[in-house]
Structures are given as C-alpha cells and as structure tokens.
Amino acid sequence: MKPSGKIVSRLSEQGYRLTPQRMMILSVIEGGGGHISAEEIYAQVAAKYPYVNISTVYRTLELLKRLGLVTETDLGDGRLRYHPAEKGHHHHLVCTECGVVINLDESVLARLEDVLLHRYNFSADLKHMAIFGRCANCSE
Amino acid sequence: MKPSGKIVSRLSEQGYRLTPQRMMILSVIEGGGGHISAEEIYAQVAAKYPYVNISTVYRTLELLKRLGLVTETDLGDGRLRYHPAEKGHHHHLVCTECGVVINLDESVLARLEDVLLHRYNFSADLKHMAIFGRCANCSE
DNA sequence: TTTACTGCAAATCTTTTGCATCAAC
DNA sequence: GTTGATGCAAAAGATTTGCAGTAAA
C-alpha cells in the first residue's frame, strides 16, 4: 500500500522531505481503519521496515497534525489516536465499562456546533470528538 | 475552611477513615473554583500542612471519584482536573489558542444526551465535558 | 552541498505502586 | 489491637528533546 498522492504532494510542496520513514508512516495511517495510536503505527511500520524509531513516528504525527492532514482524538485510554483528515469526520461513543467504541456520524453534533457558534461565538472543533458513557449492553 | 459535612459523613458511613490529610484535601477541592489539578491540590494542602505526599492526593482523588463525590475532567493540558460533584455540573469550552475555559450550562447538552440515549441506547456521562475550539477573540 | 530528518538515549511529566510504618477506629 | 491510610522512593507509560550523524533536495 502506498500513501495517497494528495498528502505526499502537500508535504513536498511545502518543502518537507519525503523520507521512506514518512512514506511508511503515511501508508499505515491511511491503511488502517482509523483510531490508530503512535505505538501501533510504529509496530506496523517496524514490521516491514525495521529502520524506524518511535520518535520519528511522533515527530511525523506532530507535523501532519500541524498541517491538518491528520486529526488527533483522545479515547480515554491514555494514548492519543490518529485518523487521516481526508477520510472524513465522525465522533465516538466510548463505553467506559467494556471499552467498545461506536462511531457517530458528524451530523449528530452539527446542531450543537451551531448553538456554540451563535450563542457563545465559540467555533468548536468537533472533528473527532469522544463522548464517554455506557453502551446498551453495559447499561443492562 | 472546613470540608462539607456531607462528604465527610459519607466517607465515615462507608467505613473510610477521616485522616487530617483527607480533610485538608477535601477542603481544598471544595474551596477552589473547580478545575483544580492534583498538583495544585497538593501545593495548597502542603502550604498549610506539610505532612502530605502527592500520592495521598492521588489516592484520595481516586477514592472520591469512585464514590461519585468528585468528577474528573480532561481539559486537554496533560493533567486531569477535579470538581466537587455536589456543586453541580457544567461543561467547558476550551480555547486551544489562548487556553481560556468558558463554562457552559449543562442544559446545552441535554438534548444531545437525549438523542444518544434514544437513538443509540447509549447513556452518555456528560458531567463535565470539554469541547475544544476557538473562542470569540481568537477567531478574530 | 545544504540543512531537514532520523536514530539513539536520556529526560520529562503525570500518575501509580510496593512496602514498611503509622494512626483512626 | 486491627487494618486501612500514609510517606517515600521507585516504577510505569506516553511523549519529548538534545545531539551527532545521515540522506533528501
């Protein structure tokens, strides 16, 4: 699997170098189903290409985040999760009992976003929000 | 300042010991304006009563959380914040630019809570949620 | 050739834990 | 007197950083 040309060209346009490490990291982020952690990205890259260091993963994520190419979500388990921005947004219902994560279409929070903007002049960044609680099973 | 009789009696009813450390920690949590971190609680307690250790603060917070006497909120700055449950709930609009935290009445999210419950069978725990974005000033 | 990027190891920072001692009940 | 709570120091775990060497442009 190759990384998307879009992200790659965006990087090189802005003068960033296209190193093999970056390409591999990009592939993994885009290839997975989202919600991937730095450690998982590292493990997947290292499996095929052992010449990577986890600090390179963190530095790459930092860069991609800054350029708005990936979004970062805290699902409450002590490590941050990443998702390619171009794949669209959704939210997460996280069960604090069993840990299941249910995806929630972004439209559900659209009204909230409106209210916050008009009533509080606050432009909420509801890209990949996590809402904690209990899923159907765990509430009996 | 003394801790509220309500929390104290709740603790002793359930067989927990009322140590001076716990009393001081309770006072600080109740005395402050909310959004206080473990480190801040520790600093305030230690100022008057040097015989405290930060691990006692963490253990006490853990206990109070488990008993539902304080709520825990992640305002995104790398440390968790605490608020006495009896003082009522509210949410937080956190500006990722300037760091300002705007309190949001819990009623604003009441409809969302309903939708999640009825459409997804998910009982969201919206006690002290943090929503990130840009405040009026920082969006120009 | 230039200098951005990487690997390595060590540091950072918050939170947790093992264990011996102490004190609330 | 019991045993739950504390202090201390060390561990844990995710993320960051300094620095010298390497390679993308």
Give your account of this protein's structure.
Two copies of one chain form a homodimer. Chain A is an alpha+beta fold and about 140 residues long. Chain A has two domains: about 5-85, Orthogonal Bundle (Arc Repressor Mutant, subunit A); about 90-140, 2-Layer Sandwich (Dna Ligase, domain 1). Helices cover about 40% and strands about 20% of the residues of chain A. In chain A, the strands form two sheets. Chain A has a three-stranded antiparallel beta sheet. In chain A, helix 2 crosses helix 3 (about 40-50) and helix 3 packs across helix 4. The radius of gyration of chain A is 17 Å and the shape is globular. The interface of A and B includes residues 104, 121 and 136 of A. Strand 6 of chain A pairs antiparallel with strand 7 (about 130-135) of chain B. Chain B binds a DNA duplex (25 and 25 nucleotides) through helix 4.
Short description:
2 copies of one chain form a homodimer. Chain A is α+β, with helices and mostly antiparallel strands and 140 residues long.
The average pLDDT score of chain A comes to: 92
Please report the total strand number of chain A as a whole number. 7
Rough outline of chain A: globular
Tell me about the biggest sheet of chain A? 3 strands, antiparallel
Report low-confidence residues of chain A grouped into runs of 5 or more: none
Kindly provide the name of the CATH class of the largest domain in chain A.
Mainly Alpha
Q: State the distance separating the first and last CA atoms of chain A.
A: 42 Å
Number of domains of chain A: 2
Please give the CATH architecture of the largest domain in chain A: Orthogonal Bundle
The two chains with the largest interface, and their residue counts, are: A-B, 28 and 28 residues
Number of helices of chain A: 5
Question: Order of SSEs of chain A, N→C?
Answer: HHEHHEEEEHEE
Oligomer: homodimer
Using only CA atoms, what is the Rg of chain A? 17 Å
The CATH fourth-level homologous superfamily of the largest domain in chain A: Winged helix-like DNA-binding domain superfamily/Winged helix DNA-binding domain
